[in-house]
């Protein structure tokens, strides 16, 4: 009695696909962690149907993804991998590449920048709103910006506040998932 060999094929039913992903996610990140502990540079990016990102990377997701997207880690001509070549030939409007760039940019934003989305930052730089001044004023007064009163905000600022909260939620989910993966990995040794 050995294991049955399963056929690798796409799971069509959305509910079954979600269950399969949620069951196998921890194992995937555990294997990535094991490879990272053995000295490999690795990045795992998984996106759910709803667009939630689950990310693991060593040393950092941004560094590994950046290296493959921009070929900044030049190896000798014969030593370049097929993965590097395929990533460099990928079309720029590819959905996976856009999601990878979105996750790497969101992960790179620090807590001091209040995890404001890229569009919000561009609008703030153009002088279209006062979101940065509001968040910096709240930071200086030692209040957390997400606890501020929303009653006096305009519609534009409410939408920016909403997108900032969504970006914060995404970064919290990513951090929580990475901590869970580490916890599961360490539990395997006890």
TrEMBL record:
Gene Ontology molecular function: DNA-binding transcription factor activity, RNA polymerase II-specific; protein dimerization activity; RNA polymerase II cis-regulatory region sequence-specific DNA binding
Stored Gene3D superfamilies: Transcription factor, MADS-box
GO cellular component: nucleus
Signal peptide interval: none
PROSITE patterns named in the record: MADS_BOX_2
Extent of Basic and acidic residues compositional bias: 90-104, 115-124
Domain of life, per lineage: Eukaryota
Subcellular localization: Nucleus
Polar residues bias spans: 105-114
UniProt cross-references to InterPro entries, sorted A to Z: TF_MADSbox, TF_MADSbox_sf
Pfam hit, one: SRF-TF
Region (Disordered): 75-132
Alphabetically ordered keywords of this record: DNA-binding, Nucleus, Transcription, Transcription regulation
Stretches assigned to the MADS-box domain: 1-60
PANTHER family assigned: MADS BOX PROTEIN (PTHR11945), OS02G0164450 PROTEIN (PTHR11945:SF629)
Name the UniProt record assigns to this protein: Agamous-like MADS-box protein AGL29
Organism in which the protein naturally occurs: Ananas comosus (Pineapple)
């Amino acid at each position: 009695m050995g294991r049955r060999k399963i056929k690798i094929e796409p799971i069509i039913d959305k509910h079954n696909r979600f269950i399969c992903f949620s069951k196998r996610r921890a194992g995937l990140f555990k294997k990535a962690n094991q490879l990272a502990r053995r000295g490999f540079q690795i990045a795992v990016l998984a996106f759910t149907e709803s667009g939630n990102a689950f990310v693991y990377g060593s040393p950092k997701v941004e560094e590994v993804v950046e290296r493959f997207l921009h070929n900044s880690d030049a190896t000798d001509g014969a030593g370049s991998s097929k993965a590097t070549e395929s990533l460099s030939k990928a079309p720029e409007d590819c959905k996976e590449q856009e999601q990878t760039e979105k996750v790497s940019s969101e992960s790179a934003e620090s807590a001091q920048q209040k995890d404001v989305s890229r569009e919000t930052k561009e609008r703030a730089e153009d002088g279209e709103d006062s979101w940065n001044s509001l968040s910096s004023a709240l930071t200086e007064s030692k209040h957390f910006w997400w606890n501020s009163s929303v009653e006096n905000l305009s519609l534009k600022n409410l939408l920016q506040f909403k997108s900032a909260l969504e970006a914060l939620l995404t970064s919290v989910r990513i951090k929580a998932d990475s901590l869970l993966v580490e916890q599961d990995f360490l539990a395997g040794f006890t």
